[in-house]
Structures are given as C-alpha cells and as structure tokens.
C-alpha cells in the first residue's frame, strides 16, 4: 500500500521560473568535495543553463519526485569535424589534392546531478536516456561527456550502464593571473584579427582538427569572444600592414600561431574550497610580497578561495619551427588581457599530443593532466563511410575545444 502512495519519478524540461532555486539547491548539496582535498565549486549566477545556452541547440531536464527536484541534466548539439578525407580539384588531377573535413552532428552531456539521498534509484540513468532520446530526435549521430578520471561513479554509469566508451583524454592547463604583467617577447608581434579574418584562417588551416565546430563564425562573433590574436615574427607584419588572410596564407612567415579568448567570467564563477589554513596563509603571503616588491616578480597565487572569473583560450594553433614560442607570446598576451578584465586564471584544454603544448605556461597544481571524454554512437546510419565509427578512431595530434561547452 505504501508503495502505491509513493510519488512517481517524472522527468520534464527545466522551467526557469519554477525550478531555478530548487536546481541551485541540488547543485549545492551535490558539490561536496572529498574530505581534506581541494574542490572546485561553480556558481552559475542564477542561470542554470548558462553553460549550454550559447550552443546551436540545447536542453535541460529535471527529475522530480512530487514537488522535489532530485536531479538534472544538460545537453547540447552541434556539428563538428570527426575526420578528414582527400579531395581532388579536377577529375584527373591527382597532384591537386587536399584534406577536407568530414562533419557529423554530435551531442554533449554535462551537469548531470542527482541528490545524494536519492541515488542508486536509477534517476541518473533515466535522465541520460531521456536526453539521448532528444539527441536522436534532433539528428545527433554521437553523444559524449567529460568527467574527471577519478570520478568513478560517473565513469561507471556511462561506461557500464549507458554504453559509452573511453574516447579522449585531453589536458586542462591552468595558469594563475599574477599582479604584474607577463612579459611578451619583443621579437613577436601580436595582431588582433577581425572575426571574419579569423574565420578564414581557421577554416583554411584548422578545419580538419577533431571537434572543429562547423559554425566557427558563430563562436567568433559571440559577445563572449574577446577576439582572435595572431602572433608573427617581429618585422614581418603589423596591424597597419596586415594584408588580410588570403594574402597572408599565400606567403606566410616561417612561423606563426593564433588563439582566441573567451570570457567565461560573464557566464559563471569558480571557487576553490577545502584548502587548509596553512595553504590559504601561504597564498596570501605570496600576494602581499608581490605587491610590496613587484620588481622581484614573485609568482604570487591569486585569491582562488573566493568566487573568481577566468578566461578560456580556444582555437589554439600554429605552424612552423617556432610556433611554440609564438604560442608562449600569445599566452602572455592573454594573461595581460585577463589581468585587465579582473580574472584570476587563464585556462585552456588541449590534446595530450598537442605539439604546441610546450608553449603554454601552466601550474601543475591547478591543472589536470587527463580529463576523460567518453563517447557513444547513437545511430548506425553514419553519413560518410570514409570515417566509419568515430568512437573507434585513433586520437589526432590536436583537438578543438568549443568554449561554449566549458
């Protein structure tokens, strides 16, 4: 009799007017870090869909028992590069070939939460299945998710119960924003590109990179994108002599690199919790010394124990033997931009095989060597046989991390 009176679980679309406060309450009780360890907490600034709302298509679902919200999940869909194939310009011209991207529609799951006192009841599984149904209805061919390698509960749910496979292990590289400006090599000139010029460079040189978004123009023109910046050898080009992307690519300098910057500070803030009093005091001491003696350039630790914003570097790429040095200059430029905007860290995410990784300054204590991406094939009617099943493909040298899903 009691079982018959027990409220049934229902899953429905998120209603911001009705659900925001209840969703925030679930987020708070789910973000309880392990005892004695540092944990990262997210404040979505009263906008629970902030991390997906800039994607081409998105959905948030909530699980409800009676009037209580006991779980939620977010998802979005976009079209990205999943491989490349050779294309010939001309029927019989075997020498005039180039690689062109192969695109597919991919869905991304993030923000799966279930109230601690309601776990082991199949709520997470039901949320995932309902989200996948929406993905299929909207033509997604693959679904993937990202989690920490040591989040065993999440990994087990997706790989054991939902049919996902471990797919990629990119690295999250985080660098603190110091109280002093970073030094940018005088041998490097940095040029700010217009969104249209940046789009041409990305499509002409990096469109075959895995996960490259086909709507890169929408990303570059988004209000959160602070710009795309090109690094070239000093004396080659300047903002005044920039010839445009076509002429630049017809005769590029020996080495060059570019990166775009996304203002995540306007979307959500982060906060480090669980630090001991000793660690807090040490961090504060480095800041005090740095302010008092700036010429020493002490590597101070910004205050990460209160809510802080960050900038995300995306679309990082380059060519030539000194491309890593160009990337280092761009990272210094991005650091200074973040300092001006009041951010405390600059972050990026790259493939573990990324050849330009050596040019990206980062602190190991703030970074993650292996973020885990798991993927599942949703449909068997894949649109281009030249790639086959993407989930079984080998990782490439680089990966494009969409800032709309950070």
Automatic annotation (TrEMBL):
Annotated coiled-coil segments of the chain: none
Annotated Gene3D superfamilies: 3.40.630.30
N-acetyltransferase domain: residues covered: 9-183
The keyword Transcription regulation is assigned to this record: no
SUPFAM superfamilies linked: Acyl-CoA N-acyltransferases (Nat)
Single Gene Ontology MF annotation: acyltransferase activity, transferring groups other than amino-acyl groups
Keyword Transcription regulation: no
Pfam families on file: Acetyltransf_1
Record's keyword terms, sorted: Acyltransferase, Transferase
Family: Belongs to the acetyltransferase family.
Stored PANTHER family: ACYL-COA N-ACYLTRANSFERASES (NAT) SUPERFAMILY PROTEIN, N-ACETYLTRANSFERASE HLS1-RELATED
Identification of the protein by name: N-acetyltransferase domain-containing protein
Organism: Vigna angularis var. angularis
Classification lineage: Eukaryota, Viridiplantae, Streptophyta, Embryophyta, Tracheophyta
């Amino acid at each position: 009799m009691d079982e018959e009176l027990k409220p049934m679980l229902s899953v429905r679309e998120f209603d911001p007017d009705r659900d925001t406060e209840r969703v925030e309450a679930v987020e708070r009780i789910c973000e309880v870090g392990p005892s004695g360890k540092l944990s990262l907490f997210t404040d979505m600034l009263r906008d629970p869909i902030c991390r997906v709302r800039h994607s081409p298509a998105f959905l948030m679902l909530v699980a409800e028992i009676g009037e209580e919200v006991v779980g939620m999940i977010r998802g979005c869909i976009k079209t990205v590069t999943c491989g490349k194939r050779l294309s010939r310009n001309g029927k019989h011209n075997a020498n005039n070939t180039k690689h062109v991207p192969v695109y597919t529609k991919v869905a991304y799951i993030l923000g799966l939460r279930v109230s601690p006192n309601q776990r082991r009841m199949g709520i997470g599984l039901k949320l995932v299945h309902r989200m996948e149904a929406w993905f299929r209805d909207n033509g997604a061919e693959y679904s993937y998710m990202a989690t920490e390698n040591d989040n065993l509960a999440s990994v087990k749910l997706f790989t054991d119960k939902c049919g996902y496979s471990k797919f990629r292990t990119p690295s999250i590289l985080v660098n603190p924003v110091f109280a002093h400006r970073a030094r940018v090599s005088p041998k490097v000139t940095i040029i700010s590109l217009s969104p249209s010029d940046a789009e041409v460079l990305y499509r002409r040189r990096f469109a075959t990179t895995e996960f490259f978004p086909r709507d890169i123009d929408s990303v570059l023109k988004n209000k959160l994108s602070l710009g795309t910046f090109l690094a070239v050898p000093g004396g080659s080009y300047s903002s005044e002599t920039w010839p445009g992307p076509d002429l630049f690519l017809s005769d590029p300098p020996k080495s060059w690199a570019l990166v775009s910057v996304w203002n995540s500070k306007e979307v959500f803030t982060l906060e480090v919790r669980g630090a001991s009093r000793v660690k807090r005091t040490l961090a504060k001491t480095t800041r005090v010394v740095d302010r008092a003696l700036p010429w020493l350039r002490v590597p101070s630790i910004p205050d990460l124990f209160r809510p802080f914003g960050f900038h995300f570097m995306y679309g990082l790429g380059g060519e030539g033997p000194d491309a890593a040095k160009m990337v280092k200059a761009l990272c210094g430029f991005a650091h200074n931009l973040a300092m001006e905007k009041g951010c405390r860290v600059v972050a990026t995410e790259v493939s573990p095989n990324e050849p330009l990784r050596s040019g990206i300054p980062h602190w190991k204590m703030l970074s993650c060597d292996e973020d885990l991406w798991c993927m599942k094939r949703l449909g068997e009617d894949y649109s281009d046989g030249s790639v086959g099943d993407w989930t079984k493909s080998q990782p490439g040298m680089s990966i494009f991390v969409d800032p709309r899903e950070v």
